[in-house]
Amino acid sequence: MIFARPPVLSLPPVPVTLAVAAAMLWWAVPLAVESIGPVAGLAALAMAVHHLLTRLDAPQPDRAAALLLLLPSILLNAGLPGPSDALWAVPCLIALAALVERRHAAMLGWFGLALGLSAQALLIAPFFLALLINRRVPFRLWPIAPTAAAATMLALWAAGRPGFDLQMAGYPALSSDAPNIWAILQALPLGLPLIGLALAAAIGATAAYTARFSAQILDKRALLSAALLAPLVMAGLLPGMSERCFLLADILALAVALSYRDKTSWTTAILVQAGSTLAVLGTLSGVAGLAMLGGVATIVATLRVARSLLNRAANDNPLMVRTV
Q: According to the model, what pLDDT value does residue 289 have?
């Protein structure tokens, strides 16, 4: 077989490698940024989703990848100024696919690449941390992620390009058109400093999430739902989020719906998509009320995903923390 993987290096599939290379054209070829970057990013996202759904044994992954390109929030996001968010979202999806295959070293490498490209990859970090603990991945492998992140940032710095984009933490407002609870609360005349409350809520929710899924046994379907819950909770509670921070949630919500193919999953995917689309339209139009409406949709979607995972655990054997 021409493209068979070598037994030692365990390289990613050739289409996935090409997808990542296409997504990185925006900085490798500066003259082609405006014309090629968005198109390459969309193509890379579609191929990464196809790769992930294939590993999840989802039906018709080709149609799923095509459907991704029709999502309003994805198309609108590609038109926003700044670097393409596909640059960090694609490695996150490939890392998730590696996790499904229990290739933890590859997972850490791909996630480190995503983290080196943008701080927004931290939005799914609690999920990967919980699964490292859950599966008792040896600690000797854990440094792969920070090493890959540091190498990526160094390479970007050497190329004269900024790495580890901190745009999600650079806003003075609680929410910068992000469809979350803070977009609603900051519009109310409360007169209270809410930054501390937002940070405390995000830290508490992250700790609870990590503790929960470091002990709960997840099958392939629940694994994807748990991955979706992480960016929904993190982007929903952290202060300073923007409308771009829900991109990964949009993609994962669609992947869950295409894997489950039930009414509940499709309703959740529509809610997440509506929230992101309204937020992006609010940014483009300058109408802040659209982000508030989107916040209602994403809050409802987050509660639905959390409830489905909690009900799944309640219907299984009693949840018990593993002992060494």
A: 84
Supply the pTM of this predicted model: 0.81
Amino acid at 256: V
Integer Cα distance of 79 and 322 in angstroms = 46
Residue pLDDT, tens place only, 9-61: 344 454 444 445 545 544 444 444 444 456 777 778 888 888 888 888 777 77
70-76: long-range pairs with CB below 8 Å, 24+: 71/250, 71/254, 71/273, 72/273, 72/277, 72/280, 73/246, 73/247, 73/250, 73/273, 73/276, 73/277, 73/280, 74/42, 74/45, 74/247, 74/250, 74/251, 75/42, 76/277, 76/280, 76/281, 76/284
Task: Specify the DSSP element, H or E, that contains 175.
Answer: strand 175-176
Question: How many Å apart are CA 191 and CA 178, to the nearest integer?
Answer: 21
Beta carbons of 241 and 168 less than 8 angstroms apart? yes
- Give residue 107's Cα distance to chain centre: 14
C-alpha Rg value of the chain to the nearest Å: 19
